[in-house]
Specification:
Elements (H helix, E strand, L loop, with lengths): L1 E6 L3 H6 L3 H16 L3 E5 L10 H10 L4 E5 L12 E5 L5 E3 L15 E5 L4 E6 L10 H21 L2 E6 L23 H12 L2 E3 H5 L8 E2 L16 E6 L6 E6 L7 E2 L2 E5 L3
Parallel strand pairs: 1-2, 7-8
Antiparallel strand pairs: 1-14, 2-4, 3-4, 5-6, 6-7, 8-11, 9-11, 10-13, 12-14
Helix pairs in contact: 4-5
InterPro entries: AP_endonuc_1 (IPR004808), AP_endonuclease_F1_CS (IPR020848), Endo/exonu/phosph_ase_sf (IPR036691), Endo/exonuclease/phosphatase (IPR005135)
Protein name: Exodeoxyribonuclease III
Family: Belongs to the DNA repair enzymes AP/ExoA family.
């Protein structure tokens, strides 16, 4: 069973592809479609409250014919056209839900979690809030991490869980190019890293690190620094995590080459279900 997850940084920019970056994004989206994954999880769709428009729906249907589409957008009082997640699935789930986790501020309304239930597992698509410039949201981010850990742990008591997304944290120093200068940067504070450790200790496995304990690879490169991608000065902040009871079913996990396009690369997971 094949899974792909990607922070696309605006679905509309990919669909319209009117800029060089948009062209790169659409080409990558088309590449993903050609692989025909069983599940495709998108973060940072940045759709309006009304959701997909007619053109976006048609293009997704053309690229992913026959897939079920599940959408969650940012809604008031959260910012318009912010965050948002979409999950495409070949098979209809037993159930679909847009859970809330009693998160602080407007985080529950920002379109950050989609839950699908299947016979063998729950599938979560997650876009974790960024702590922001100057770490202005760090305290609230910590509450999100705590509440999400409780939520996903409760799910795992009923059925195994597979979840993916932009989790906005580089867990260990090996997970970013320049750890020494980033200990006060969003995504690499002691608090965020410790919360991720607690998540793993709650019974979940980082699939890529499980298979590559000493390897270096990144899933995100800053757009603000034009030399970040050419110099491979990246971070690994996108993950597939699974209930540790599923460790023996992990076949392969990795990143999809995004070429010259900075920002997030798609990630993939292959699982061996009977």
């Amino acid at each position: 069973m094949n899974f792909i997850s990607w922070n696309i940084d605006s679905l509309n920019a990919a669909i319209e592809h009117k800029s060089p970056r948009g062209e790169l994004t659409f080409a990558l989206l088309s590449q993903i479609a050609a692989q025909k994954p069983d599940f495709f999880s998108i973060q940072e769709s940045k759709l309006p409250v009304t959701g997909l428009n007619a053109k976006q729906t048609q293009v997704l249907n053309d690229l992913f014919p026959g897939y079920c589409t599940f959408v969650r957008n940012s809604t008031p009082p959260a910012k318009k056209g912010y965050a948002g997640v979409i999950t495409l699935a070949k098979e209809q789930p037993i159930s679909f839900n847009c859970p809330t986790i009693d998160a602080p501020d407007t985080m529950d309304e920002e379109g950050r979690i989609i839950l699908l239930e299947y016979p063998d597992f729950y599938l979560l698509n997650v876009y974790t809030p960024n702590s922001g410039d100057g770490l202005k949201r760090l305290e609230m981010r910590g509450l999100w991490d705590d509440n999400f850990r409780v939520y996903v742990s409760q799910l795992a008591e009923r059925k195994a869980v597979i979840f993916s997304g932009d989790l906005n944290v580089a867990h260990e120093e090996i997970d970013l190019k320049n750890p020494s200068t980033n200990h006060q940067s969003a995504g690499f504070t002691d608090q965020e890293r410790d919360k991720f450790t607690q998540l793993l200790e709650a019974g979940f496995t980082d699939t890529w690190r499980f298979q590559h304990p000493d390897d270096v690879a990144y899933s995100w490169w800053s757009q603000r620094n034009r030399m970040a991608k050419p110099n491979n000065a990246g971070w690994r902040i996108d993950y597939y995590l699974v209930s540790s009871t599923l460790k023996d079913k992990i076949k392969k996990s990795g990143m999809i080459d995004s070429g010259t396009r900075a920002d997030h690369a798609p990630i993939y997971l292959q699982m061996a279900f009977d």
